[in-house]
Specification:
The protein is of the alpha+beta class. It has two domains: about 35-230, no CATH class; about 240-400, Immunoglobulin-like (Sandwich). The chain is about 30% helix and about 20% strand. It has 15 helices and 16 strands. It has helices at about 1-30, 40-45, 45-55, 65-75, 95-100, 100-105, 120-125, 180, 185-190, 205-210, 220, 240-245, 305-310, 370-375, 385; strands spanning about 130, 150, 155, 175, 225, 230, 245-255, 260-270, 285-290, 295-300, 315, 315-320, 335-340, 345-355, 360-370, 390-400. The strands form six sheets. Strands 9, 10, 11, 15 and 16 form a five-stranded antiparallel sheet that branches. β9 and β10 form a beta hairpin. The termini are far apart. The structure holds heme C (HEC) (5 copies). One heme C (HEC) binds near residues 220, 222, 272 and 282.
């Protein structure tokens, strides 16, 4: 009895020792590769940059963290918590941009290593040595990590802290790589463009800028220097304040005759890319209201939503199927229309109102992450923020 009990105790000890050794070895191996270094490690010394990044969509880009990406990923690809998931028989392309570390390892279970669920983390950008371009010689697209060469042993930095020639990163090997880290190159692998499997263009911010011929650097607007350091909040569509910076909306009126008041709304896109840019379902719409004495609403440009009854006030990208009916991004086979503001475009919207009753007109521009039909899929209380239209600009005028 005693012998067998002792031997089972030894057996147990042996197993424990074996596993602790093998995991210690595993951990050491992983530590050797920069791709497996967690943002938590950088946090110890770069606390303010870490907290900016932590609140950004880069830190929340995975299917387990971003409910909108998660809904699409699960529907189009499968579970983000299973290994070996394939799309059309291939490794899911989404992870090349939404979870770079998982893509480098060829893994699909985002819970199997903490860095996978960190999304676009510090080392996703700070190991890029070169941007290869998104066009394959064969004509196809190289996306996300495929578009970059990267190092697994040396951090890449802008070189702004290399004022003294002998500066070295205190814990990692490092290189000053301003050609990548201070130019659009660092963003383009993931933000240039992307097609669905029917070759219909979905996101195309980089292309928009190329067409605009504007050499503006993404970093100037998206990573301004705040308190002496590059801001890593990387604001975009999830910040109404940021979207509002892109649009200047003004309003002018003229009385055509005693009966008609003509209102001109001028929309001016301040940006070198489209407004709105990015995901194909981002949209902006404008509502005009005429007020009478006592602040009573006497006229509105729309009875429900401009998407239904005032299409000129709807800035959106429309995707469709072969029959020309609206289709969601993964299924679209053609572009039906694109009424978003082009880079630096100025556009006028003209309205005719009943002059007699109106003493004030007011135009409000709203931004939405999702198109109205898609909002119905996000009904949980925690999704409220994602489905609420945000005011991004207001213009008004008192009629003399
Ligand atoms: C989306 C890509 C991206 C991610 C993610 C990212 N960085 Fe950066 N980081 C950059 C770029 C680009 C610069 C250079 C900006 C410049 O010089 O204008 C930079 C600059 C820096 C600098 C120098 C700051 C300065 O201005 O002196 C530090 C330090 C840094 N990053 C740390 C981090 C840490 C820590 C994380 C993760 C918490 C992180 N970065 C995540 C792209 C990124
Ligand atoms: C032990 C402290 C420490 C840790 C941990 C640390 N850093 Fe740094 N890092 C520094 C110091 C100090 C500097 C120089 C001054 C500064 O920028 O704050 C620096 C500078 C940088 C720079 C600017 C380099 C340049 O070219 O200008 C980058 C980028 C950077 N770190 C990225 C990272 C990333 C990514 C991690 C995590 C993988 C990390 N650091 C972890 C201390 C640390
Ligand atoms: C490794 C791929 C990758 C790189 C490199 C990268 N991004 Fe991103 N970026 C993403 C992904 C993925 C998202 C979307 C996350 C989501 O909404 O689920 C995103 C989101 C954004 C957003 C939108 C934020 C919002 O509020 O919706 C902005 C702005 C942005 N990135 C700017 C940049 C800039 C500027 C650079 C270059 C300094 C850059 N990114 C580099 C992958 C990348
Ligand atoms: C002149 C300033 C400016 C420059 C330059 C600029 N952007 Fe933007 N960007 C903005 C503003 C403002 C917004 C918010 C309005 C919008 O979403 O269209 C924005 C939005 C975005 C978004 C959010 C899309 C989404 O779906 O949420 C992405 C991604 C983005 N920009 C990437 C880039 C990239 C990549 C570059 C460089 C090639 C770049 N931007 C250059 C100002 C700028
Ligand atoms: C080339 C890089 C890239 C690839 C590949 C990619 N995405 Fe994205 N995705 C982005 C970027 C960048 C954004 C955010 C900025 C924008 O809107 O352009 C984004 C945003 C999204 C959004 C909107 C998220 C939000 O917060 O509103 C969804 C949904 C999405 N992607 C789904 C997918 C799915 C599903 C796949 C794979 C079938 C995929 N993406 C492949 C780069 C990519």
């Amino acid at each position: 009895m005693l012998v067998s009990r002792l031997s089972s105790v030894f057996y147990l000890l042996f197993i424990l020792l074996f596993f602790s050794f093998s995991s210690a070895n595993g951990a050491k191996k992983e530590k050797d590769l920069l791709r497996h270094v967690s943002a938590e490690e950088c946090k110890t010394c770069h606390e303010d940059i870490y907290s900016q990044w932590e609140g950004s969509m880069h830190a929340n880009s995975t299917a387990l963290k971003d409910p909108i990406h998660g809904a699409f990923y699960t529907a189009v690809v499968g579970s983000p918590e299973k290994e070996g998931v394939k799309k059309n028989g291939k490794y899911p392309i989404c992870l090349q941009c939404h979870s770079p570390a998982a893509a480098k390892d060829g893994k699909t279970d985002l819970t199997s290593n903490e860095v996978y669920n960190e999304g676009v983390n510090c080392v996703s950008c700070h190991t890029i040595t070169r941007f290869k371009g998104t066009k394959k010689p064969s004509g196809g697209l190289r996306l996300g990590m495929q578009a970059y060469a990267f190092s697994d042993t040396s951090l890449q930095g802008p070189g702004t802290n290399h004022a003294e020639a002998d500066w070295e990163h205190p814990i990692f090997a490092s290189s000053a790589n301003p050609e990548v880290m201070k130019t659009n190159a660092v963003c383009m692998g993931c933000h240039d463009k992307r097609n669905n499997s029917n070759k219909v263009a979905l996101c195309q911010t980089g292309d928009e800028i190329a067409v605009s011929g504007d050499s503006n650097n993404c970093l100037g607007c998206h990573m301004p220097i705040v308190n002496g350091k590059a801001d890593h909040s990387l604001l975009g569509g999830h910040s109404a304040k940021m979207v509002g910076k892109g649009l200047v909306m003004t309003l002018s009126t003229l009385s055509k005759d005693a009966k008609t008041l003509v209102v001109n709304i001028k929309l001016a896109n301040q940006l070198p890319h489209k407004l709105p840019t990015g995901a194909p379902f981002r949209n902006i719409y404008i509502k005009l209201t005429g007020y009478g004495q006592d602040g009573m609403v006497v006229w509105t440009s729309t009875q429900s939503h401009p998407a239904k009854d005032d299409k000129k006030a709807m800035l959106m990208y429309s995707l469709g199927d072969a029959k020309g009916d609206p289709a969601p991004p993964p299924k679209a086979t053609q572009v039906l229309g694109d009424t978003r503001l082009k880079p630096h475009e100025t556009r006028k919207l003209k309205y005719f109102l009943p002059a007699a009753k109106i003493v004030k007109v007011r135009a409000v521009a709203y931004y939405d992450l999702l198109l109205p039909p898609m909002k119905k899929k996000f009904t949980k209380p925690e999704h409220e923020e994602l489905v609420t239209s945000k005011i991004i600009a207001v213009a008004e005028k008192i009629i003399e």
